């Protein structure tokens, strides 16, 4: 009886061991699954947060203009550079700044007229010549100067020809009295000056610089001035050609 009882007890003990082993395996499996789920949820949360940040940043950046985004990596100009950029250049056509040449100050009356049809803005033999030999560019400026307190209007015209030979031919024609010329901005009505119908036939000067011909005509507006003074002024005004090119 004792041996039987002992065998039975051993069987119970073996059963308890098997059961305990199964429970351990089960709990280990459950623990692994819990860890997997927690890790998975954490990864999803991280990805969701990253996605939301990218989305929000993208919306904010999209609302900015291209110039604003491009300017992120551009350093602001120095104070001196900004000041110089805002200053008008008196050498540019249409500059509102007076131009000082020698002892005279030439103030632009209107923005210079620029084109490439010299036939349309000329008259006389000069117009016929342009119909045969077109120019490449014509710029017509008009300036006001004070001489001894009197107003003087000065027309400065630059004509660019295809080559130097044509430029010299043009100067030869415009220098000829009665052969016509390029219309100044008073003569063609661009500027209304009742006391001066036009500057054609007044104090005249011309020059050729490579392919560019400069033509100047000047006259007083109210009171007659010394012709010698006006002739000198016309010669000085040739230097304004650099402001019209």
Topology diagram in text:
Layout: H1 2-62, H2 66-70, H3 79-86, E1 99-101, E2 104-108, E3 113-115, E4 122-123, H4 124-132, E5 137-147, E6 150-160, H5 164-174, E7 180-182, E8 203-209, E9 212-220, H6 227-237
Antiparallel strand pairs: 1-2, 2-5, 3-5, 4-7, 5-6, 6-9, 8-9
Describe, in plain words, how this protein is organized in 3D:
The protein is an alpha+beta fold. It folds into two domains: 67 residues; 152 residues, no CATH class. The chain has six helices and nine strands; from the N terminus they run αααββββαββαβββα. The strands form two sheets. Strands 1, 2, 3, 5, 6, 8 and 9 form a seven-stranded antiparallel sheet that branches. Strand 5 and strand 6 form a beta hairpin. The N terminus is likely disordered.
Compute the average pLDDT.
73
Spatial separation of the terminal alpha carbons: 132 Å
* Annotation field: number of helices: 6
Binned, the helix content reads 40-55%
Radius of gyration: 46 Å
E-strand count: 9
Low-confidence stretches: 1-15, 53-95
Order of helices and strands: HHHEEEEHEEHEEEH
Q: Could you state the oligomeric state of the chains shown?
A: single chain
Determine the strand fraction and express it as a percent band: 15-25%
Number of domains as seen in the coordinates: 2
Shape: globular
Largest sheet: 7 strands, antiparallel
> What structural category do the secondary elements indicate?
alpha+beta
């Amino acid at each position: 009886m004792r041996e039987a009882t002992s065998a039975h007890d051993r069987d119970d003990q073996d059963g308890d061991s098997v059961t305990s082993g199964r429970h351990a395996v089960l709990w280990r499996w459950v623990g692994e699954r819990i860890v997997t789920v927690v890790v998975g949820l954490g990864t999803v949360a991280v990805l969701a947060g990253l996605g939301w940040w990218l989305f929000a940043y993208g919306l904010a950046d999209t609302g900015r203009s291209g110039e604003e985004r491009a300017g992120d990596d551009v350093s602001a100009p120095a104070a001196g550079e900004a000041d110089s950029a805002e200053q008008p250049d008196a050498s540019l056509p249409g500059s509102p700044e007076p131009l000082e040449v020698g002892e005279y100050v030439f103030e632009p009356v209107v923005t210079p007229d620029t084109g490439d049809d010299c036939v349309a803005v000329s008259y006389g033999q000069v117009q016929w010549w342009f119909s045969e030999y077109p120019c490449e560019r014509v710029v017509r400026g008009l300036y006001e100067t004070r001489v001894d307190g009197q107003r003087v209007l000065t027309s400065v015209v630059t004509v660019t020809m295809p080559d130097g030979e044509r430029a010299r031919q043009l100067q030869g024609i415009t220098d000829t009295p009665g052969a016509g010329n390029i219309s100044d901005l008073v003569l063609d009505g661009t500027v209304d000056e009742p006391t001066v119908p036009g500057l054609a036939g007044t104090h005249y000067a011309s020059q050729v610089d490579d392919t560019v011909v400069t033509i100047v005509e000047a006259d007083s507006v109210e009171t007659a001035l010394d012709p010698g003074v006006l002739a000198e002024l016309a010669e000085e005004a040739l230097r304004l050609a650099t402001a019209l090119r």
